[in-house]
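The following record pairs a protein chain with its ligand, protoporphyrin IX containing FE.
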Amino acid sequence: MSDFDSDYDYVPAQAEGEWRLPPGLRRALPFYFRRKWVSFGEPIPLFEHLHTVFGRIAHYRFLGTTIVFVNDPDWINEILVTQAGSFVRERTLKRMKILLGEGLITSDDPIHMRQRRIAAPAFHRQRIVGYAEQIVDNAVAARDAWSEGEEIDVADGMMHLSLQIVARTLFDSEVTAEVLSVRDEVNTIMGLYNFLVAFPMLEKVLHLPIPGVVQFRQARRRLDTVVAGMIASRRGMSREVLEGRGDLLSMLMAAVDEGDGTGMSDTQVRDEILTIFLAGYETVANALTWTWYLLSQNPDAADMMYAEVAEVLGTGDAARRATIEDYGRLRYTEMVFAESMRLFPPAWAMGRQSTKPVVLGEYRLPTGSHFFMSQYVMHRSAEFWEAPLEFRPERHTAKAKAARQRFVYFPFGGGGRQCIGEGFAWMEGVLSLATIAQRWRLRFVPKYPVVAQAKITLRPKWPMMMRVEKA
Ligand code: HEM
């Protein structure tokens, strides 16, 4: 137990009136600000420390609330599935409402349930297979833009690729000024996110001339104008025409709730489109970036993946473009992508707040407690993974997956709020990797340190420089 000062700092499990709290930190978190595991804006060292010291559950206090950090797969299942009705979105996520309104990420039931029901068909397997061609088109364009020997920042390259794919599949457009402006305004607002989350009573001061808040307001206004234009240009279209277009925006505008026969208002469409844009763009880009890095560090696994790509898609003059049918055959490539999301899960933690007392095993936690579960910590836990820091795609064979306990691996969350774009993300990841691997290997160039930074997604802190070499 490094950095463990004594039981002066740590309290064992204890009763507090009708509650029974798990072991945890004796004092509120700011008291520990000089410890190396506490650093503003870097929650992963704190989570890892709590996991090392306390194991499967711990608590601490911050700003008058009780925060419970859970590392037990059964209890994660309790929170996300069995007792899901006792939880709502965690406060910091709810703050995103100032950008995302009542979209899937920020809303709670009953709004969430209805929106999810309306949006679900647009993400059905039959629907998303239609996007395979657009994914491959864009991956071909990305790989053809590189030349042998060139040094590229692969993080930047994968952001660009996933933006192209979002533009085509979400808006049915190329990356136009409109799409770039959506990206820029969303980035501006997310850049202000930590400031906005920490701001007391933010919702009440949104109209005041406070720096940061003004910047947020301007970015949101510009964003709303662009998205409103995209929606308005489709509003005159019939349901059949919208469905025929096939892009996600049109699909959401055509969709109706089977229960009451009504569709989404323009505001709801706007909220969902921004939600999907935010949820689907950076996550996939980061997963791909980390995959290229891990492949460069693990040549044996890389050889296996390149051999599979050559076998499935052919080599030399016989090589052909990947199709949706190939997606099902690129099993090892999918295992590589899965293992990359184990070590570097783009969604590195999830939060919930309880609306009722919650019982987890011997513990009884008060209403209003915050609960955090971290994919990053669970995916690297020696309790559940042999040699957890080693890159071993074989951990994800069908047999190994069937034998694995639920919520030891959960890059896409679980329960009623499981990622709606999961199928899309797997397809995008596997087809993009295979298409680029048909032509190139990427060799890591150690110009910058490799540091994972836990922002909204887990991203590399510095550019990820790689040399483009023939496959
Ligand atoms: C590797 C890529 C991705 C990862 C790791 C990922 C991860 C996640 C996770 C963990 C959640 C659940 C959050 C929670 O319960 O608190 C989530 C929700 C969501 N994701 Fe993804 N996601 C990815 C890609 C996508 C894509 C491509 C889309 C859309 C095209 C998307 C759309 C959404 C939406 C709309 C939600 C909210 C669902 C709801 O609450 O009903 N995601 N994602």
